[in-house]
């Protein structure tokens, strides 16, 4: 990663050079090849008892940096602690919770002393479930979650809609110690899966809001960052934030974006999932270096255009079904099957949006937000029947039949799980029947045996 062009330490010139050569897929593949030399293991993630706790088969936490649960029968969760010492930053990158890992997720937030959850995905995207609804469905005591398994309660105390993201404040109460703590969820609602935000400027405003909350400060626990797999959008956020901190501390001439990404990938596999996300990271870092500079003066005429991009995107109709996404991890070293989409113009990037692509940007609108699932009387983690059957594994594509193959495998997986659940229910019913018949049969057999003994005695 020490190319001559990169040694100039001029991010803007590097960006222009890559864009002029349309070399984003090549750079992205090069990063992937370097990561293939890593020798880190994922032994815990691949144990039979832990495999069902992974949303995708090919996105696993490294053993050396995985988050370990302390107060649970199971110490495993698909999460890694990602450190960037130069930026004095720590993040916990994790997958979107499954139905039966909600309690594990909140226990991790509590044990790690995290003060914020950064949720970068919707619950439903392109008609696919990307994450379980893991927070209370309303504000107040009557709507709170009681997680008996981990002795925690989760109560939502406020919610604020900020156009393209939402903030929610939760109170976590530890039933063992009696302590309580508030945690803020920053929910970015307009960032499409395998895509990029509607504009670098809107994303930077979101980052500034997160920073101003103090959630990323070194005196509190690491913020929990998740999307669906916890590597694409999550990795983009952490890369941009870390690079901007290093720029503030050391100057832009000392920042090598690709090298920093490689360093972060040593803690969690596959951060940044597409060449488009890598390109967006460059744009956001260049833009952020200007906007976060104390001497930066924003043109007030630009303010309306910045947020109109987000508003227009939110009002767009649902796109036709896109081609199926590549596998989460295997795609890290493959070039995309189609040209990169354009990234919308931002306030100060100007000609940095230069590219040779003509494809339109993917819409970030996935229709109306989903209705929350029915409120559960006990811990959401106790209901295995509500598992995300369609999220249990990633999908391999090949040629024009990829979509059909993906759907067939999803149906087969759902059918197998349904059969397993049916057999489990039948076995439980049979055991219950045996238990219910045991006592009366024992009594009847006792009477018969007593009758035989009396009859034998009287006869003789």
TrEMBL record:
Entry-linked SMART domains: PTPc, PTPc_motif
Biased composition (Polar residues): 343-366
Origin superkingdom: Eukaryota
Alphabetized GO MF terms: non-membrane spanning protein tyrosine phosphatase activity; protein kinase binding
Membrane spanning stretches: 91-110, 437-458
Domain Tyrosine specific protein phosphatases: 201-279
Residues covered by the Tyrosine-protein phosphatase domain: 11-288
GO biological process, one term: negative regulation of ERK1 and ERK2 cascade
CDD domains, sorted: PTPc-N1_2 (cd14545)
Cross-referenced InterPro entries: NR_tyrosine_phosphatase, Prot-tyrosine_phosphatase-like, PTP_cat, Ptpn1/Ptpn2, Tyr_Pase_AS, Tyr_Pase_cat, Tyr_Pase_dom
Disordered: region residues: 311-407
Presence of the UniProt keyword Membrane in the record: yes
Keyword terms, alphabetized: Endoplasmic reticulum, Hydrolase, Membrane, Phosphoprotein, Protein phosphatase, Transmembrane, Transmembrane helix
This protein's GO CC annotations: cytoplasm; endomembrane system; nucleus
Localization of this protein: Endomembrane system; Endoplasmic reticulum
Entry EC no(s): 3.1.3.48
Acidic residues bias locations: 312-321
One Pfam family it belongs to: Y_phosphatase
PANTHER family per the UniProt record, alphabetical: TYROSINE-PROTEIN PHOSPHATASE NON-RECEPTOR TYPE 61F (PTHR46047)
Stated family: Belongs to the protein-tyrosine phosphatase family. Non-receptor class 1 subfamily.
Name of this protein: protein-tyrosine-phosphatase
Organism this protein belongs to: Bicyclus anynana (Squinting bush brown butterfly)
Gene that encodes the chain: LOC112045864
């Amino acid at each position: 990663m020490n190319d001559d062009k990169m040694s100039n330490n001029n991010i803007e010139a590097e960006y222009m050079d890559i864009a002029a050569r349309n070399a984003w897929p090549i750079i992205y593949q090069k990063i992937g090849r370097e990561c293939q030399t890593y020798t880190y293991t994922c032994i815990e993630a691949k144990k039979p008892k832990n495999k069902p706790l992974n949303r995708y088969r090919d996105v696993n936490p490294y053993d050396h940096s995985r988050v370990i649960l302390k107060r649970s029968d199971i110490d495993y969760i698909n999460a890694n602690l990602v450190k960037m010492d130069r930026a004095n930053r720590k993040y916990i990158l994790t997958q979107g919770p499954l139905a039966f890992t909600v309690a594990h997720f909140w226990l991790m937030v509590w044990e790690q002393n995290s003060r914020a959850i950064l949720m970068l995905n919707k619950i439903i995207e392109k008609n696919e479930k990307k994450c379980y609804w893991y927070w209370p469905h309303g504000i107040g005591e009557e709507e709170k979650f009681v997680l008996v398994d981990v002795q925690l309660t989760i109560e939502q105390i406020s919610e604020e809609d900020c156009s393209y993201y939402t903030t929610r404040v939760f109170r976590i109460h530890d039933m063992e110690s009696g302590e309580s703590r508030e945690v803020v969820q920053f929910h970015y609602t307009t960032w499409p899966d395998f895509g990029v935000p509607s504009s670098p400027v809107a994303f930077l405003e979101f980052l500034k809001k997160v920073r101003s909350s103090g959630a990323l400060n070194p005196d509190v626990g690491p913020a929990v960052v998740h999307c669906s797999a916890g590597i694409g959008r999550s990795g983009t956020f952490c890369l941009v934030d870390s690079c901007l901190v290093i720029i503030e501390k050391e100057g832009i001439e000392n920042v090598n974006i690709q090298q920093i990404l490689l360093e972060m990938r040593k803690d969690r596999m596959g951060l940044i999932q597409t060449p488009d996300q890598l390109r967006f990271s460059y744009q956001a870092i260049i833009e952020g270096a200007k906007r976060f500079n104390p001497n930066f003066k924003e043109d007030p005429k630009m303010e309306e255009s910045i947020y109109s991009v987000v508003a227009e995107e939110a009002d767009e109709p649902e796109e036709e079904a896109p081609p199926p996404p590549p596998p989460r991890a295997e795609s890290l070293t493959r070039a995309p099957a189609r040209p990169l989409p354009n990234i919308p113009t931002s306030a100060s990037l100007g000609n940095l949006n230069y590219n040779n692509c003509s494809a339109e940007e993917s819409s970030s609108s996935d229709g109306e937000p989903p209705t929350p699932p029915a409120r559960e009387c006990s811990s959401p983690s106790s209901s295995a029947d509500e598992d995300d059957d369609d999220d249990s594994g990633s999908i391999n594509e090949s040629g024009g039949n990829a979509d059909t193959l993906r759907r067939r495998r999803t149906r087969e997986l759902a059918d197998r799980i349904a059969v397993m659940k049916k057999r489990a229910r039948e076995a439980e019913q049979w055991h219950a029947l045996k238990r219910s018949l045991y006592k009366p049969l024992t009594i009847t057999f006792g009477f018969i045996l007593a009758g035989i003994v009396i009859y034998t005695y009287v006869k003789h």
